[in-house]
Amino acid sequence: MPGMSSQLFADLRAAFASESMTAQRYAYFAEIAEIEGHLAVAQTLRELASTTDCVAHGHLDLLRFEADPSTRQPLGDTELNVAAALTGELHESADLYPKLSEHAHDEGLADVASWLETLTALKGAHVTRLQSTLAELRAQELTGRHTAAGTGD
Amino acid sequence: MGATEIDRPAPVARYDASSITILSGLDAVRRTPSMYVGSTGPEGLHHLVSELIDNAVDESEAGYCRTLSVVLRGDGSCVVTDDGRGIPVDIHPATGRPACEVLLTTLHSGGKFAGGSYANSAGLHGVGLSCVNALAEWLELDVWRDGRHLRQSFARGRQASELTDLGPSDRRGTSIAFKPDPTVLDAVEFSADVLVNRLEEVAFLHPALTVEMRDERTGRHVTLNHSGGVAAFLAHRGGAATPVHEQPIVISGQSGSLVLEAAVRWTDGYTEDVWSFVNTVRTEQGGAHIDGLRAALATVINRHATTNGLLEGLNREKITTTDVLEGLTAVVAIRMAHPKFDGQTKRRLQSPEVGSFVQEAVQDGLQGQFDADPELAQRIVQRVLDASRARLAARLATRTARVRQRKIEIDYSVYQKQFGIRSKNWHDSCSWLADDGLLAQHAALCDVPENARMLDVCCGSGVVGGAFRGKVGEMIGLDITPEMVSLASTRLDKVFQGTVYDLPFEDASFDLVVNREVLHLLPRPEVPVAEIFRVLRPGGQFIVGQIVPYADEDAFWMFRIFKKKQPLLFQMFREEDFRRLLLGAGFTLDKMEEYFLWESIDKWIDTHETTPEHRQQIYRLFYDAPPEVRAVHPFEVAADGSVRDRWRWCVYSLRKPAQ
Predict the structure, then answer these.
(1) Can you give the CATH number for the domain in which A2 is found?
(2) A53 touches chain B (CB under 8 A)
(3) Which domain holds residue B299?
(4) Which residue blocks in chain A are alpha helix, DSSP H?
(5) Is the per-residue pLDDT at B387 higher than 50?
(6) Could you tell me if A29 lies within 8 Å of chain B, comparing CB atoms?
C-alpha cells in the first residue's frame, strides 16, 4: 500500500479515535437503556456499537501499514503488535495515570485520584504480562528458526 | 458401510431415510446442549424437568389435566406424571412410526409447531421433549390413552424399544421418567428446592391444577394447590420487607388473545423482586411486558405527583422508571399466542405489541385504584418519591463532598445523613458487620493490659469495640451520627458524638484504638490516621481492618463496584496502599492477618445508599467481570442471578513507638 501523507494519517487517526470512542459510548448507553427498561433502544445502540467496532477496525486496516495510531510504533505481525501494546501500557502505567492522579489530588478529588491509582496498578500488571508474552513469542520464534534451519539445510 | 450408517447404534431396529435427519437433529442437541437448554450446568438440568412440567401445564391450560407430580428417585432419575390426554400414540402418517416416538426423537416436531393443538404453549418452542430425550442416558415413556397402557424406552435420544401395549387401563395421562446423561451434562443432580420453586409458580398460576413433589432421596413430600392467583403468589413470595400497603394491587386486562394478570406491592426494602411469566414460563430477564409495567407505573405515579404538587422537592426532576423499582414486588403473568423470545430458553420476551398492551392495562388499572383510594395513592407516591430523593441525594453526596473538599472542609451532614438512615436494621445490611469470625480476628490481636482504655473510632453499632469486652478496662466509642451513638451505647461504656478528623480526646489518652472499614470513606484518610496516632499513648496499639483487592488486576473493578454501592467511597486501597498509609503516620507493624468472608452482594446492595440503577450496574459488573478479574478474585453467581463475593479482609495490628 502506498504511504499516506502525515496529514491524512493524522486525520484518519483522529477518526479512528472518534469511532473507537463511539463504540464504547454506545455500548455504555445501551447498558443504561437496558437498565431503564428501554430494550428496543438498547438493541439499537448495541447494533450501532457493533457496526462502529467494525468501522474502527476498518480504519485500523489502513493505519496499521503506517504506524500504531496510539503509540506511533510500527505495526504488522503479532510480535510487532504486542511490542506496540507494551509501549502503550508502559506509557499509561508510568506516565499517563500517575500524572492524572496527581492532577486529581491537586484538585482535591480524592475519589478520582484513587480510581486513577487503581489504573496505574492495573496497567503495571499489564506491562508485566505483555513483557512475558513478548519474551515467549521471541523465544518461540528463535526456536522455530533454529528448527527450520536444521531441517532445511 | 455408508457414511450415514456410521452413527447408528447396534440395537436400533428399522431406520429409513427420514430417520437419518432425525438422528442428526438430536446429535446436534447432544453436541451443544447449551444452545437448546441454556447451559450444561444446574440451570440446564432443571430446564429439562421444566420442559416436562410445561407440557403438563399446556394440557391443563387446554382443560384436560388436573394433577401433576414430580418424583426425584434415589437412582438420580426424575419422573414427571400428569393426568392429561396422554401423548398421541397412533401412527404418524409421514414417518409410519408412532407419534410419541416421532415427538421424542425429532427436533421441532411438537404439536405446538403444527399449530392448532394448543392456543398458548409453555414449552420450549416445541423442541422440548426431544431435547429432554437427547440429553437423557435413558428415558421411559408411559402413556395411558384410549383405554390402553403403552410403554416405550429410549437411550440418549434414540429409540431403544418398540412401543409396547401393556394391556387395558382406565387411567389417562403421560409419565416420563428419565436419567440425565452425565456424558453430555455437567450437572446431573436435581435440586428439590429449585423444582419446588417452579412448581409453586405453576400452582399459583393454575388454580385448577394440584401439584405434587416427592423427593425419594430425602423423604420430602409437598402438595400444592393454590386458588389465590397472582396476589396470593405475591404475598407468598413477598419476603421480609415491610409492605407500604397491605393488599397487593391486582391489575388484569385482555385484548384479543392477550391476557394480563398482575399484582404489585411496594415495600420499604430497596431491591425489587419482579416475577414475570409468559404462558406460565418464567421470563427471568423480563422484556416487553416488564418494560410496559415500569413505564405505566412511572406515568401514573408522575401524573399523581404532578397533579398534587409533590414533585417540588425534586428540583424539576421527574420520577424515573428506575425509581419505581425500588422496593417494588410484582408478579406479571401474560398469556398470549406465539410469543417471541430472545433465544431458546425464554428468558426475555421480545414481542413488542405486549409492551403497549401491558402499559395501557396497567395505567388504566392503577389509575382506577388511585382514584378509588387516594390514601393508597398517597402512600405509594411517597414511597417512590423517597427513591427519587435518594437517587438525587446519592448524586449530590459525591458532588457536595467534592466541592467542600476543595476548601479542605468536610460536609459532615452528608455522612450523618448517609449513615444515620442506615442505623435501622444495621446488622442486617450485610454479613461482615456482625460476622463472629471477623470480630474474633480483630479481638485476637489485642495485646494490651487488662485495665486498658480502648477507643472504637467510627464505632457504628459498637460491635467491634464490643468484641474486646473482657480484654480491656474501659470501652469508649465515637461516631458522627446520633443514631449510631445511641445504638453503640448499648455495647460500649461511653459513646461520644464527633468526627474522626478532629478527635475530641487528649493526646496519649488511650492504650488501644480499634477501627474497621471506615478509612476508604474519607477523602483525606491520613488526617484521621494521624489523629488516632495522637490520642494513643506511646507503645499503644492500633487494630484496624479493611477490605482490600486481591491484586492489581481487580482493584479498578472493585472501585467501580464499591463506588456504585456507596457514593461516599473515596479510596480503593490495595493492601500496599493501606499499609503505606498506616506506616506513613509513624506506626510500626506488629502483624497483618487475612480473613476471607463470603458476602451476599444482594444483601449488601439492598440499601438506600445504592440507587436501583447502581444496583443493576453492580450485578452486571459481576456477570460480565473480565477474565483477568475472575482469575484473581473469587465470586459466585447463582442460577437465580444472586451473587456472593469472597472479600479479602486484612486486619492489622500496629504500635505507636514507645518513646
Answers:
(1) 1.20.1260.10
(2) no
(3) 229-388
(4) 6-36, 39-63, 78-91, 97-106, 110-152
(5) yes
(6) no
